[in-house]
Structure formats: structure tokens, C-alpha cells
Design a protein that fits this description.
Layout: E1 2-6, E2 11-12, E3 15-16, H1 26-81, E4 86-91, H2 104-118, E5 127-132, E6 135-143, H3 147-153, H4 160-169, E7 183-192
Antiparallel strand pairs: 1-5, 2-3, 4-7, 5-6, 6-7
Bound molecules: heme C.
């Protein structure tokens, strides 16, 4: 795995996880970063806008219905509208839906984010990995950045109806007991060149 670019210094246990991009890769990298930022913004805005509308309309149960029945379909829809060769997804070490389980290379990046969090250092804005000759992956770390996230990812034991609904839909759910500002996972943008 080759980490090509990162905005803030990422030194873990003395290992430098990124290298300056060689000049020949500069142009490619700049376009990867642009695509990554654009796709991340589109995905997050789409999911958050829809989730908040459902929350307003019918409260947490309605928002849960939305997240569990439409978040994935909506991600597909966003992907179909992005330029060809660009797809997005969300991953987490503590995933709720097993389809969001990270692949091996993604897990390495998530683990390095988790180490930064444990060290109480600032998370990078993004990381770019060259996954193979033609594929780049752009990672945007996601945190619990809004109190609303805690309704479904915090301590949910106080709301038995919600807890039951989540456990029924996601029997292997790991995505609870987060606190404000915790690292939640990442958006991954796959970019084919
Ligand atoms: C109304 C409940 C609810 C709220 C509020 C909510 N989520 Fe989720 N979240 C879910 C559900 C349900 C899933 C699983 C979606 C699926 O099945 O595709 C999920 C999945 C995710 C995932 C994908 C990884 C995984 O665990 O499967 C991330 C990342 C995530 N949520 C982050 C957030 C953040 C950040 C916030 C606050 C801005 C938030 N969520 C608010 C219910 C919620």
C-alpha cells in the first residue's frame, strides 16, 4: 500500500506513512484530490440532508427507517451520478451494516486514524492511497460531529424501542456507545485513472 498524500503530518511510532508525490504524479494526484473532495461532499450532503429531513418529520424511528432502508440505495444513486470511474462508500472498524466492513487496505488506513485519535493528535483532512496501477483511494475521516449522531450511535440503552429496532435489523451492530468527536469511520472514494 502506498500512501501518496496527506495534509497533516502522520508520524506513528516513528513510521512515516506518506511520501511526497514524485513530480510526474503531481497532476494525477491533484485531480484525484479534487475528485475525492467533490465526491465526499456530494455523498455526505445527500445523506445528511435526507436523514435530517426524516428526523424532523418523524423523529428518530423515522430517521432510522431511512438510514436502514435508503442510505445504501442513496449511496448507489450518488455513485451513478458521479463522473465515470468514481465511486464512494462509507467504512468503519465498528460498522453497523456488514457491507460497510473495511477491506484490508482500508482497515490499515482506519487503524492509522485510530492511532492518531488515541494519541490525541489532529486527524488529517484526507489521505490518498494508490491501491493499484489504475486505482486511487481517497479517505476522509468521519467523526461524531453532531449531537444528532449520538441518537443512534451513542448510548442507545435508554430508548428500548430504538435499541430493539436496531438490534433486529443489525444483529452484529458494533456502531454504538460513541461519544462526541469520536472517530466514526471514513468515506472512501475509489477513483479509476
Ligand atoms: C436515525 C439513526 C441514525 C443517526 C441519527 C445517524 N446514523 Fe449513522 N447509521 C445509522 C444506520 C441505521 C446505519 C446503517 C446504514 C445501512 O444499513 O447502510 C448507519 C451507518 C453509518 C455509517 C456507515 C458505517 C456503518 O457503521 O455501517 C457511518 C460512517 C455513520 N452511520 C455515521 C453517522 C454520523 C457521523 C452521524 C451523525 C451526523 C450519524 N451516522 C447519524 C443510523 C443513524
Amino acid at each position: 500500500m502506498k500512501i501518496l498524500s496527506i495534509v497533516s503530518t502522520l508520524i506513528l511510532g516513528g513510521t512515516l506513512l506518506y511520501a511526497d508525490a514524485p513530480k510526474t504524479e503531481d497532476a494525477n494526484l491533484a485531480s484525484v484530490i479534487n475528485s475525492g473532495k467533490m465526491a465526499t461532499k456530494t455523498l455526505l450532503e445527500t445523506l445528511q440532508k435526507n436523514m435530517q429531513e426524516h428526523m424532523k418529520k418523524g423523529g428518530v424511528m423515522e430517521a432510522l427507517n431511512f438510514c436502514s432502508t435508503e442510505a445504501y440505495a442513496l449511496t448507489d444513486k450518488v455513485n451513478s451520478e458521479l463522473p465515470k470511474g468514481i465511486t464512494t462508500k462509507r467504512v468503519s472498524i465498528k460498522y453497523r451494516n456488514p457491507v460497510n466492513e473495511p477491506q484490508d487496505d482500508e482497515l490499515k488506513v482506519l487503524n492509522s486514524f485510530a492511532e492518531i485519535e488515541t494519541a490525541k493528535k489532529a486527524l488529517p483532512e484526507y489521505v490518498v492511497e494508490k491501491a493499484d496501477e489504475h486505482t486511487y483511494k481517497f479517505y476522509k475521516p468521519l467523526t461524531i460531529n453532531n449531537q444528532v449522531c449520538l441518537k443512534c450511535h451513542g448510548d442507545i440503552s435508554g430508548d428500548k424501542v430504538l435499541e430493539k429496532a436496531i438490534n433486529e435489523r443489525y444483529p452484529t451492530d458494533k456502531a454504538v456507545n460513541y461519544k462526541m468527536d469520536d472517530l466514526r469511520g471514513a468515506v472512501v472514494v475509489m477513483i479509476k485513472k
